[in-house]
């Protein structure tokens, strides 16, 4: 009999954007706080106190403004640069806690628990939570299970019954799995969205337990292979490994080492533009829009001569986009800030993050207008390149654009990425 595969854990930041804001404003931790979307148009994050007031995810600003003016709620504009930098710090800590990590989104990561005895899973989860809180100052929830889908459900349970669970739930025990599956609504299952929830409800499937017990072949015929695999994972069968997830990615990276060391800004900019265009094509292929990107360049870690340097820049976008031209301009803007003369650069690249679904995004009335016929142009470019070969149609390298500042009237300082925004001593 083959031994059971090691468990998988998912670490999830509690109310990510709000938790980061409150890290630098501890006097507000017991107050209702929210973070607003681009151009301060709607609520995109809220803590438990704000939820208790009935504030909904996506609720328009004009419906909330009176609560802020009366002092019942504290609101912040989205500071993507700060959020991404703090996420990087959390992920760096998590990378030391397991042999393998998959960064799933700005506030989530999967960890492979290979080599850890099953009896120590829960204690490991508590230790990881304490370590992140101690080293970064951000609270996280920990879900552990034999499959990704069960680990994700365990994480939901850890948050739902936080006082009892201590933000850590281990579903290694089959009896505990069964109890939670019978309690969990099917809409809380990873990958089951509102549309699938309605279709499953029409078939009498309302809990995770009922989905797990459905005939796999029937699910594949009606809903496709992803839902079938989700049900099999709920039943304890591993279908997705760490590094492999159903649905669209939550982060896209494009990096490459140079064939030779590069010192000129123009050469690095050409490489960054190329990487950005390729990442943008992947973004469009999965139907997502990007709200934030990181650009980096560094020298070789093994170089014995020359100046050592590693720099990165996080750029928040004024509105979600998949337009290669907009993303290239933002990437070059970031590169211009991090580039230094002198170092012999060995590698550069970009990371796109903080995605929203393109078919569910409602443009903001006050956001900068999109480029004319952007969707049609990008679709045509992708079609030609798919048929005739990569870079048959490509962008000329542009200078970084200006005027990117979006309307963020409640913006917090970028405490960790901008010298001028450092909090004063004392």
TrEMBL record:
GO terms for biological process: DNA repair; error-prone translesion synthesis; SOS response. Its EC number is 2.7.7.7. PROSITE patterns: UMUC (PS50173). PANTHER family: DNA REPAIR POLYMERASE UMUC / TRANSFERASE FAMILY MEMBER, PROTEIN UMUC. The keyword Transferase applies. Keywords: DNA damage, DNA repair, Nucleotidyltransferase, SOS mutagenesis, SOS response, Transferase. One of its GO terms (molecular function) is DNA-directed DNA polymerase activity. The keyword NADP does not apply. InterPro entries: DNA/RNA_pol_sf (IPR043502), DNA_pol_Y-fam_lit_finger_sf (IPR036775), DNA_pol_Y-fam_little_finger (IPR017961), DNA_polymerase-Y (IPR050116), DUF4113 (IPR025188), Rev_trsase/Diguanyl_cyclase (IPR043128), UmuC (IPR001126). This is Translesion error-prone DNA polymerase V subunit UmuC. It is an enzyme of class 2 (transferase). It comes from the Bacteria. Belongs to the DNA polymerase type-Y family. It comes from Vreelandella rituensis. One of its GO terms (cellular component) is cytosol. Residues 8-193 form the UmuC domain.
């Amino acid at each position: 009999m083959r031994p059971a595969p090691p468990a998988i854990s998912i670490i999830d930041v509690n109310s990510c954007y709000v938790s980061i804001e409150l890290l630098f404003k501890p006097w507000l931790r017991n107050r209702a706080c929210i973070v607003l979307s681009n151009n301060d148009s709607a609520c995109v994050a809220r803590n438990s106190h704000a939820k208790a007031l009935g504030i909904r995810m996506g609720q328009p600003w004009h419906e909330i403004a009176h609560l802020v003016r009366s002092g019942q709620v504290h609101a912040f504009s989205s500071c993507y640069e700060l959020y991404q930098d703090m996420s990087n710090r959390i992920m760096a800590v998590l990378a030391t806690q397991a042999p393998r990590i998959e960064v799933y989104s700005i506030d989530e990561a999967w960890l492979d628990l290979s080599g850890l005895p099953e009896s120590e899973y829960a204690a490991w989860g508590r230790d990881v939570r304490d370590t992140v809180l101690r080293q970064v100052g951000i609270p996280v929830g920990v879900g552990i299970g034999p499959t990704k889908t069960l680990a994700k459900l365990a994480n939901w349970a850890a948050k739902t019954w936080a006082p009892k669970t201590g933000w850590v739930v281990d579903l290694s025990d089959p009896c505990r799995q069964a109890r939670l599956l019978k309690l969990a609504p099917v809409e809380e299952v990873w990958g089951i969205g509102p549309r699938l929830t309605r279709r499953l409800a029409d078939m009498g499937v309302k809990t995770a337990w009922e989905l797990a017990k459905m005939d796999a072949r029937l699910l594949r015929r009606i809903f496709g292979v992803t839902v079938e695999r989700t049900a099999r994972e709920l039943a304890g069968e591993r279908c997705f490994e760490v590094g492999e997830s159903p649905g669209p990615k939550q982060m896209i990276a494009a990096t490459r080492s140079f064939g030779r060391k590069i010192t000129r800004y123009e050469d690095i900019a050409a490489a960054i533009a190329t990487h950005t265009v390729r990442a943008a094509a992947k973004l469009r292929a999965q139907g997502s829009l990007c709200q934030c990107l990181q650009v980096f360049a560094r020298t070789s870690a093994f170089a014995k001569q020359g100046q050592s340097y590693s720099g990165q820049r996080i750029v928040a976008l004024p509105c979600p986009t998949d337009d290669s031209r907009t993303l290239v301009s933002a990437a070059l803007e970031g590169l211009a800030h991090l580039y230094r003369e002198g170092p012999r650069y060995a590698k550069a690249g970009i990371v796109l993050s903080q995605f929203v679904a393109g078919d569910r995004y409602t443009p903001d009335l006050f956001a900068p207008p999109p480029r004319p016929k952007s969707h049609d142009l990008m679709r045509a470019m992708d079609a030609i390149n798919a048929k005739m070969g990569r870079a048959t149609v490509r962008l000329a390298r542009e200078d970084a654009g200006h005027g990117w500042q979006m309307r963020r009237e409640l913006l917090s300082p970028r405490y960790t990425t901008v010298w001028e925004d450092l909090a004063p001593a004392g």
